[in-house]
Amino acid sequence: MASFLTDQKHYRTSFFLKILHSNSQSLSLKFLFGLPQLLTVRWKSYAYVNKVKEDLEKRGCQVRTGCEVNSVSTNEEGCTIACNDGAKEVYDGCVMAGHAPDTLKMLGKEATYDETRILGAFQYIYSDIFLHRDKTYLPRDPATWSALNFLGIMNTRGCMTYWLNIIQNLGDSKLPYLVTINPPHTPENTLLKWTTSHPIPSVAASKASCELDQIQGKRGIWFCGAYQGYGFHEDGLKAGVAAADGVLRRNCSILHNAKHMVPTWPETGARLIVTRFLKSFIETGCIILLEDGGTIFTFQGTDRKCSLKVSLRVHSTQFYWKVATQGDLGLADAFIHGDFSFVDKNEGLLNLFMIFVANRDLKASVTRSSKKSGWWTPLLSTAALSSAKYFIQHVSNQNTLTKARRNISRHYDLSNELFSLFLDETMTYSCAIFKSENEDLKVAQLRKISLLIKKAKISKEHHILEIGFGWGSLAVEVVKQTGCKYTGVTLSEQQLKYAQSIVQQAGLQDQITFLLCDYRQMPNNYKYDRIISCGMLEHVGHDFIGEFFSCCESALAENGLLVVQQESRAVVFYYMPSKTLNTFAFGWARTIQL
């Protein structure tokens, strides 16, 4: 940027603003959240140049370094490269990635009229650069020190100082490490000096960049370099990609930067709340938010309990608003509506949940000692209104006898086709027992069913009752394995319909009976030898757990067995407000881990 500070009057205002926008886009609004995050490759060019060199050599390419090229000429045989050591080599084509003046110098008298005219439009300015530790080349007040400090126009050249401690994460030091461009005199404690050139943005250069297609590949020579854009590294990369596509004779389609997000003032506040929450909440693992347009937030924990990292692409500022105002339910809503997505389509969602769980567990002891209500609620204070709304909804959804049918229908009667998308072919729901992480779901579900049958000690002479039979998989399996008589109850019409169909297919109608009723409305004149409840107690609700077991006791024969399997939570999490579960699942549920 220092290369054009001295000659701004010769530029179009729009062109000058484009350059500033390209260089500083990532800084906008980031000052609300701390220092701007600018990504750089670790170990700089040394790392990626060697990486490319290694990859090319693995592919059988010959890479020569330290070889100065004197001239490039063309004839019917191809391109002849003359080196400083006297060697000459002939190639089918050539990509010239040097500065425009250096390129013209290598082409020499063989440069065509168009090559001379177009490449000659790109002018350069030379700057003296010093690596030093002289604090006088920073603002007097240390509180105003920035990564990039403009010191003014000195000797008709722009003078700027880069604070390397910040840019390259060097940490604090007694004297800062600085790079100053075009200082009026040599700084004290100078470590290194060199001279480099920068392309000068101009109207002529802008026009010439639009005419590059007139010379690209015309003589088997392609041209690329940062001068074809605004002089930044990204411009050099884009020009290189375009030249490579030209050599391969394929169309080049350079992606444009996504439009920078401009949140409303309420969304700006929501973003501040969400980022502050994640900064304080994430103690282990790493969550990265990648906004469309380039803004990046990284939340890295210091605890090594969890090594997982997940990157979220934020496509809409509504993501922040929903999370800030609705908490975890807002996160789900934002995902459903495409406000964000995961870079890793396969493991991203799982890793996010695992990171949340790991951090929740880390904070469990703090929650237990301070008697706070939960990991999310205290931190998202702006969700107070929505918390009140969900509390009212929770109260209205109490699983009373009159409301239980409605509550079950809202979840299980959505459609059997929907549940078949993520259940195994037996349509068995919840509480699968896995022996390994990648085990097939059907195998884990059948293991659960077999374990329930074993726990209940079922034999042929028994009549068993299942409260909440799901889609009927246990009913069919237990009768097949033991030959017992089976009765099941449900409140879901869709589940009843599906279960009846698979029983009919198995030819077990004489041994299996299904009832569409509440567990509190079962016939009280019959006793069952065994009662099984799997994944149903979650639906009962805290206020009705006692009534549920009373009904089981009334229906259980003397010396009978009751087997209950359910999802549960540790005591420390049991009394957390269940305010956000009802919209997409079943919020009336809470069960304690015994």
Automatic annotation (TrEMBL):
Pfam families: CMAS (PF02353). One of its GO terms (molecular function) is methyltransferase activity. PANTHER family: ARSENITE METHYLTRANSFERASE, TUBERCULOSTEARIC ACID METHYLTRANSFERASE UFAA1-LIKE ISOFORM X1. This is Cyclopropane-fatty-acyl-phospholipid synthase. It comes from Nicotiana attenuata.
